[in-house]
Structures are given as C-alpha cells and as structure tokens.
Specification:
The chain has 248 residues and is of the alpha/beta class. It has one domain (7-241): Rossmann fold. The protein is 47% helix and 15% strand. It is built from nine helices and seven strands, in the order E-H-E-H-E-H-E-H-E-H-H-E-H-H-H-E. The protein has helices at residues 16-27, 40-52, 67-79, 104-132, 143-147, 153-173, 191-194, 198-206, 216-226, and strands at 7-10, 31-36, 57-61, 86-89, 135-140, 178-185, 238-241. Strands 3-2-1-4-5-6-7 form a seven-stranded parallel β-sheet, sandwiched between helices. The protein starts with 6 loop residues before the first strand and ends in a 7-residue tail after the last strand. The relative contact order is 0.16. The mean pLDDT is 97. The structure holds acetoacetyl-coenzyme A.
Length: 248
C-alpha cells in the first residue's frame, strides 16, 4: 500500500511523547505541524534543535484548553495553506491528588486540558477530512483511563472520557474515510512520569511485567501506524501499550 504524504497536527508536540510522535510522523514522510504552550523564545530554540537534526516542523502557539485559542490556531493553519489530515490529540497535564485534597482548579485544569481539548482541536479540522474523504484522529489517553489510578480522579475521568469521544465520533465518520482511535500508553520515561515521587514510581515500575518504563518512540511507532493508509480498517479502537501492566 503506497504511503501518501499527509499533513499531521500534533498537540503538545514539544513535550516528551509529543516530540517522539512528531518525529515518527515526519520520518514516515508527513508534513508535521505542532501546537505548543511555550513562550516564543523557548519554542524557537526547540525548533532550531529539531531543524539541526533534520526535522522541519511548523509550530503554532495554542492553549488547547481554550476554544477561542484553538479557533485562532486553526485559522492560522488555514492561512498558511495547510489542510490537516491527521490530528493527534496528545497534549495533556496531570494535577495528582487524592479527591480529599483535590481542588476545583486541579479538577478543571485537567478536564479542560485533557478532555475539552479533544473537542476544541478535532472540530476545526473534521469538515476538511470529511470533504476530502480521508482522515485520522488519534487520541492519546492512558492506562489510567482504563484501570483508574490512586490520586488521579481528574486524569482518569478525562482519559476515560477521551475514549467515549473516540467511539462516538468513529461511528459518525466511518463511511467517509476518517478513522478515530484511542491509544492508551502505560508509564513512559517522560517528565510527566518522572515527576511522580520516587518511592511511588519505584512501586509502579515493580508492577510492570516488562520491568521498565516505556519509551516514547514505542508509542510513536504505534501512532504512526494508526495514521497510515494500512490502518484504514481500524476505527473506534482503544489500543494499549503498557508493558503488560494492565491487560483488561
Ligand atoms: N493505593 C493505596 N493507597 C495508597 C496508594 C495506592 N496506590 N498510594 C498512596 N496510598 C496511601 C499511602 O500509603 C498513604 O497512606 P497512610 O495515610 O495510611 O500512610 C496515603 O495513601 C497518602 O495519602 P495522601 O492523600 O496523603 O497522599 P499524598 O498527598 O502523599 O500523595 C499522590 C498522593 C499525589 C496520589 C501520590 O501518591 C502520587 O503522586 N501518586 C502517583 C499517582 C500516579 O501514578 N500518577 C501518574 C502520573 S504519570 C501519568 O499520569 C501518565 C500516564 O498516563 C501513565
């Protein structure tokens, strides 16, 4: 099956997993656009490093938690002449605390950034995918959306919600060449995970049958496959890659 060059948008594309996904899609021959929430200086420095390693990305500042900000980002992408074929909803945050200690701000920040963002970012690009008869939406959820996690009522709810979105939208667009899937990574060697208190993290790793954290590049390879021509029969799926930590 011939792999065509498409245009992909990766949210949170400068983060640990986002960067790996952006690079993998670029390696597969796609044009890759990123959203980021850094200041312009930090974003430019990051882009320069990538450029030096052969990765030409175009970046757009956006707050994925904010509808208006995403509308402006979509307008800038259109004004630059891009038609987005692949949306990877990767941007996400944690605000871990037991429900007893969780604040309203900690709940809202995670629900808006991790779940509302999926609506904010997918919606502006869906019509174009339907008109062109081809599209891929890949929602990056988490093992903790499947099994729940002590200290993550907010994150587990948001991540489980992403897959509800996936299953509903997959049905709406299946006949138009657009697939919608969820990827549920386990614990990866990224800053988000290494921020977990060391004793807690040690216990988590001890519970991973493969015996280690995952590498972002391993998840990225899966996302790139789902975004490919070859994956056209996969839709509404939730694909786990978690070192065997959860097999439900
Ligand atoms: N199961 C049962 N009890 C647990 C527990 C668990 N998993 N973890 C902690 N506890 C217990 C402690 O033993 C302690 O008990 P005692 O009071 O009897 O001593 C009690 O809960 C501590 O409760 P506190 O509310 O005081 O907890 P805390 O404020 O010290 O910290 C926490 C709680 C913030 C949740 C901390 O445990 C933590 O950071 N846990 C990690 C959560 C996690 O896995 N986050 C994943 C981040 S990475 C990610 O999300 C990416 C991805 O997709 C995988």
């Amino acid at each position: 099956m011939t792999q065509q060059q498409r245009t992909a948008l990766v949210t949170g594309g400068m983060g640990g997993l986002g960067e790996a996904i952006a690079r993998s899609l670029h390696d597969a021959g796609h044009r890759v656009l990123l959203t980021h929430a850094r200041d312009e200086g930090a974003a430019a420095a990051w882009l320069a490093v990538q450029q030096g390693e052969g990765y030409a990305f175009q970046s757009y500042a956006a707050d994925v938690a904010d509808w208006e900000s995403c509308q402006r980002m979509a307008a800038r992408i259109a004004a630059d002449g891009h038609q987005v074929d692949i949306v990877v909803n990767n941007a996400g945050i944690t605000r871990d605390a037991t429900l007893k200690k969780l604040t309203k701000d900690g709940w809202d920040a995670v629900l808006r950034t991790d779940l509302d963002s999926v609506f904010h970012v997918t919606k502006p690009f869906l019509d174009g995918m339907l008109e062109r008869g081809w599209g891929r939406v890949v929602n990056i959820s988490s093992i903790n959306g499947l099994k729940g996690q002590f200290g993550q009522t907010n994150y587990s709810a948001a991540k489980a919600g992403m897959h509800g979105f996936t299953k509903a939208l997959a049905q709406e667009v299946a006949r138009k060449g657009v697939t919608v899937n969820t990827v549920s990574p386990g614990y990866l060697a990224t800053q988000m995970v290494t921020a977990v208190p060391p004793d807690v993290l040690q216990q988590i790793v001890a519970g991973i049958p493969v015996g280690r954290l995952g590498q972002p590049a391993e998840i990225a390879a899966l996302v790139t496959f789902i975004a490919s021509e070859a994956a056209g029969f996969m839709t509404g799926s939730n694909i786990s890659m978690n070192g065997g930590q959860y097999m439900g």
